[in-house]
Each structure stands twice: as C-alpha cells, then as structure tokens.
Amino acid sequence: MNISIRKPNKQEYEYAAKELWHICFEEDGSAFVDYYFEHRTSAENVLAAFLPDGEMIGMMHILPYTVSFYGVLKKGSMVAGVATHPNHRKKGICRALFEEAGVLMRENGYVFSMLQPFDARFYEQFGYKVFSLRERFEAEAADTGEESDSNIKLYELNAEKMLSIYERYAQKYNGMMARTLEDCELFLKELETYNGKAVMTNDAYALYAKDSKTAVITEIAGENMCALINVLLRENDRIKLDLPLDAKCEIKGKYSKKRIEFNMLRIEDKERFFEGLPCRDEEKINGDIYMNYSMESY
Hints:
Structural class: alpha+beta
Low-confidence stretches: none
CATH architecture of the largest domain: 3-Layer(aba) Sandwich
Mean pLDDT: 92
Distance between the termini: 29 Å
Oligomer: single chain
CATH superfamily of the largest domain: Gcn5-related N-acetyltransferase (GNAT)
Largest sheet: 13 strands, mixed
Shape: globular
C-alpha cells in the first residue's frame, strides 16, 4: 500500500487527527478530545500515515514520559491513540507506524516505550511485552452493620496534595511516572471533561466518575487506600477500580475480581535502559525482581 509516514502539520493535527480520533474512539466525548489535543499532546508528538492524496488514515501519539525503574529515572515515551481508519485496517499501516516510531524514539533519546493494550497479543508482534498487571475489582455495597469507616472524612483534592501522596506511593514500584505539579493540575482538569470527582483522606486520594450507578475509579493512590475504597463504596453503592497485585484490601461488600494486563513495555535502547539498574535481564524487569505497576495509560 502506497502510504507516507510523517508528522502532521498544524492544520492536519487540528482537524484530520482529531477527526480520526473521533472515528476510532467513539466512546470519548468531545470535551475530553478537545482537552487531550490542547493539553496532553501536540502535532510534534504525533506520527501519522497518509495516502498520496493527503488523507490521514492512521496515527499514533508518542508522548514523552520520565519513568522510575528501581528508583532510577529513565527517559521514554507513552504510545497512545494508536488508530487506523476502519476502511484501511489489516493493510500493514499499524506496523509501518511502529517501525517508524522506533526510529524516531531512538533519535529522541527515548530508551523505552509503554502502551496500554486493547489486546496484548496484538502488540507483541511489535516487540512489546506485558509489564504491569492489575486486579480489577467490581464491588457492591453490603449492609453489614459495621461503621468502622464512618469517622473517615473525605476532602476535596488539590494538585499539591495529590503530588505529595503520589510521590510517596510511587517509590515502591517500577514503571511510575515522575510527575510534576503541572501534571497533577492537568489530571484534575481532565476530570472536569467528564464531570468527575477528586477526593482524598489524610493519606490517600481517588479520581472517579459516576457511570450509571457505578463509581468508576480511574486512579487511586496512597498509604491507606482500603479505607478510602470502602468509604467510596458506602457512598456510591457500586464501584469499579484497579489495584496493584500487592494491594492488601478488605472490601466490605460483594465483589468480583479478575487479573488484567494493564500495560506493556518495549525497550528501545537496551544499553542505556539498563545503565544503573540492578539487573540487565529484560525478563526480570518485567516482574521477577521488583513489583511493576503503572498508573499511566495515555
């Protein structure tokens, strides 16, 4: 197939890339897409596939991220918004994008890339390996007569407190982004696009939105997440959330859980990636030595 792979110009980014996002990710509302294109990505971060007539038929967003591995910060990227127009799928466009992206990442000094897969098997063909697993819980409140969490108060979360709690929480995991105050401000701004809420206790926080009768917790962190989870369950009747595999939490209600493959890792520059790390085995960075967990998805 005769296509060209390049970065879009400003007009292509503002119109064609956004239109392709709406086509491929119909579940995302216009408010979120406008926010994402204005605050989280840019034309410089997009790699797109074009037909000879200039039509954009595929794209990916390569977002610069600094992530901690064993306490060592590494420069890399989060691959997001990988999309091919429905009329042009299964024609090698995605492969062409990933091949060019690998070259571009190494030129930019990115030593790794991460992504959140819709299907891990699909991305394995491009060299990605499952990095972070999660337990996905769906819980329904039960009337046990216990009120042990009734004295726990919820407060409105601000960016400064969010960053403070996040930084302490992130220290025990591989794969956590080195966030800034501006990053936290943007996460809170993103919540506004889907009428979400940001709450905290003294030592934990949660970001969530109400989906029908369920509170979908999109991010939770802190030293005592269990108490916060149970307060949110009591107030919302139903909750859905993901937790790291090492989380010890007694959920006070009926719940189901399943293990999910949350994100994947590809090492772009092996020598520079492993420099300063206590292992040089790619398999061990994928979970054998140190608990892997990431809260970033795009």
